[in-house]
From TrEMBL, chain A:
Membrane association type: Peripheral membrane protein
Stored Gene3D superfamilies: P-loop containing nucleotide triphosphate hydrolases
Coiled coil: none
Protein name, per record: ABC transporter ATP-binding protein
CDD domains: ABC_NikE_OppD_transporters (cd03257)
Domain ABC transporter span(s) in chain numbering: 24-273
Protein species of origin: Pseudonocardia halophobica
GO cellular component, one term: plasma membrane
TrEMBL record, chain B:
Protein name as it appears in the record: Peptide ABC transporter ATP-binding protein
Record's keyword terms, sorted: ATP-binding, Nucleotide-binding, Transport
Alphabetical list of PANTHER family matching this protein: D,D-DIPEPTIDE TRANSPORT ATP-BINDING PROTEIN DDPF-RELATED, TRANSPORT ATP-BINDING PROTEIN
SMART domains listed in its UniProt record: AAA
Amino acid sequence: MSRHTIANDTRANDTADDEIVLSVRNLSVEFATGNGYTRVVDDVSFSLRPRETMGIVGESGSGKSVTSMSIMRLIPTPPGRIANGEIVFAGQDLLQLSELEMRRIRGDRISMIFQEPLTALNPAYTIGNQLVEAIRTHREITRKQATERAAELLDLVGIPSPRQRLLDYPHQFSGGMLQRAMIAGALACDPELLIADEPTTALDVTIQAQILELLRRVQEEFGMSMLFISHDLGVIADVCDRVGVMYAGQLVESSDVFELFARPFHPYTEGLLRAMPQHTAGSEELVPIPGTTPDLASVEAQCRFEPRCRHAVAGCGETVVPLETVGAREVRCLRAHHLELEGAS
Amino acid sequence: MTEPTSDTLLEVSGLTKHFPVRGGVLQRTKARVRAVDGLDFTVRRGETLGLVGESGSGKSTTGRLVLRLIEPTAGRVVFDGVDVLKLGRGAMRDMRSRMQMIFQDPYSSLDPQATVADSIGEPLSVHEGLRGAKRDGRVVELLERVGLKPQHLHRYPYEFSGGQRQRICIARALALKPDLLVCDEPVSALDVSIQAQVINLLKSIQRDTGISLLFISHDLSVVRHVSDRIAVMYLGRIVEIGDSEQIYTQPRHPYTETLLSAIPVPNPVTQRRRERILLRGEPPSPLDPPSGCRFHTRCQYAMDVCAVEEPVLAPAGRGSSACHLHDYGPGLGGGTVLDLEPTHRPVPA
Ligand SMILES: Nc1ncnc2c1ncn2[C@@H]1O[C@H](COP(=O)(O)OP(=O)(O)OP(=O)(O)O)[C@@H](O)[C@H]1O
Ligand SMILES: Nc1ncnc2c1ncn2[C@@H]1O[C@H](COP(=O)(O)OP(=O)(O)O)[C@@H](O)[C@H]1O
Ligand code: SF4
Ligand code: SF4
Ligand SMILES: [Mg+2]
Ligand SMILES: [Mg+2]
């Protein structure tokens, strides 16, 4: 099924630096606001290995989508601009490519699926038409061959009577089927990296369970890496190998998924876990994080979580907090070495 | 089903709403969406009834019917002993001050041109004729009750976060001291840390005022925390209703079991070990619901009888369930479906 299968088998156990599929280094993104620019993604770094699923979790506005749009080079400029950083994919910095070169990568070697599949599709064309176009953008094959491939793809993502359904328009598909069709489109050119930005947030939980199962399966079959964005720690626990936690534009923690849930290093991660309804027995009070996320236009250089942090001490509000490496993990908290934080129950 | 008592605030019976679907040149009714199809439930004073189900199951329509924001096709809504559907315009207006509603989207439910004082104060002006400092005094009390500050009085909605806007909506809904608050997905648009703040606020208001809540949500893990009892809806019908903890830990209906199994647990060790029930196929259309049990096309336990005969809500544990498993096949007799072996496994995604 995948052109990478053999190569992946020989390098499965090796995680040397040259095995990295994607490396985001010191990425900062800004948007023009009333007076000057506001930095909405600040110094974000992470990397993805072959076949790995990396989750990015964080609250609304924390910069998850801007990070993924930066990788696809889809930040509207203006008002946006990538202020700093490198995005290294297959040995080249995507930020240095021309738009034409980037177009060859987008939808071919890196694909993306979104929360609202309907907005990504054209209501005036059939599902088949749009799949065929997606395939023919990157592959020199006949319409007939592309149609054949499109039907195969719909079948692969679990849409019954695929040949017939190719003739349907987007509005004739349910939300779950649309997301399947989007996944089919994303797989069309056998990408090395799939970026999924909240792919199940708009779906019912029973349909979400089907789509997560499908993503797990196709990732394995295609041997892709996946960047999986979500605000839901339950979904992250279900599908990810590693997790990055974002707060107010910064990566505050990154770790293996099991270690993160067993013992978070950052108080914000702990707060998110404690706030989940499953953390608390039925009749007891839920445990919120007090306060709200800061206004990004006026954040200071110190710890951005300080006003809401139950572990804050006098020094926290005064110094710049760097992202620090602790073994195979990273954390942005001055007290990380002193705190014993509460993990998932 | 719970029999109405003096403790009963709201009693709904046979509640039905069919929306006509028009088409063609003459805009004739081509079909009917059976959005809500014969609901019976009660809400006691000071109680929270949770209403869960997937999108399109009829939850919002039920909420709007209860407040008579839309007219039902059939059925009765009795509020504090009064048959709401028989009330004239004026009496209905007075009645409405006793039943209020808050919505999912705290952005669109506030007038962007109105200050907090005007938004929250409006019902006080309209119903109680309060003006100026008197009105603002009451608004400040309400602001403080929902965790906002007096200095927020003259601010506009855009100056607030989503969670704060929902607090403003709650304050406005409480202004006339209603007996019933219908909450339609009130925390679905909020981040989890803020979701917990708003839920705790609603519960603390309920403890103080004895208000009843009809809490609508698609998220069973959230509903469990606010509700004393839960009703689970599927395609316009209640399939199970009962004590909240029982529904969450020992469901009596296969659909409830499926919903519970689909909510991912925020713990990778537990989540990856759990047995999951993957539903077959697509949700059926409410234009043409399946025969017999509406869930039979997707139920992992479906028996021959299920396609033919519609099950009725019958007592099961501390609640009721509408499922043939209790009488036919394994003869569960009101026990939990968690004890069953599926007769056939669902096909994988
Ligand atoms: N086109 C834009 N113009 C101005 N600001 C923007 C634009 N796109 C994003 N932003 C800002 O960048 C910040 C990060 O947004 P982003 O969409 O990445 O958040 P997110 O983490 O994906 O949130 P959500 O969970 O709501 O999807 C926010 O403050 C947002 O308002
Ligand atoms: N005004 C309307 N006209 C036609 N159909 C409607 C209308 N309102 C709701 N429906 C339909 O009724 C069903 C139940 O809708 P709703 O009560 O909004 O569900 P829920 O709140 O559970 O998601 C859906 O199939 C929906 O499309
Ligand atoms: S640096 Fe201080 S305030 Fe910030 S997260 Fe760590 S303990 Fe909390
Ligand atoms: S009546 Fe039959 S089909 Fe319906 S839920 Fe029960 S077992 Fe499943
Ligand atoms: Mg986003
Ligand atoms: Mg609704």
